[in-house]
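1st attempt posting a full record on here, be nice pls
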Amino acid sequence: MKNQFLKIQGEKVFLRYVKYGDFEEMLELFKTSLEIYEGLINPPLDLESFKVYVDRNLEDANECFLICQNIGNKIVGAINLTQIFRKSFQNCYLGYSLGVNFIGKGYMTEAVNLVLHHAFENLKLHRVEANVQPHNLASIKVLQRCGFTKEGFSRKYLKIDNVWCDHERWAIIFEDWKK
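the predicted structure (as tokens):
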């Protein structure tokens, strides 16, 4: 059973589980950021799809967090660990997005480091994988700063806006993170 009040504290931001009451603030964040999200992610823009996003946290295979500023508690983005596999795999996928007005402030690098600590120390995972489109240089720089290693290229890996998109495969394992 997840601690619904979990708060992962950083210097600039903290992470907390997403909840239904966050819809209006998240919708505003998504709408102001649609231009930068185009072709990269499909954020939930209606209440029904937002509820599906929130309900993913009911499954042990997902950890969906909001990234919030320490001062004022404003939501600036989202970060998710999904498809958490157990047993001999101990792996998950990392996904994240930041509102357009919060880019370049170090929030995402800090959030990724916070969620990696949670993944490796609390969830006891061995590997976190992130798949990013090759032209998304800002996202690639975040992964590099956080210690991820580029492992490969996946052709037509993920369908976004009805288009199959190529992705680079990046990952970090516990032993490399521990260094």
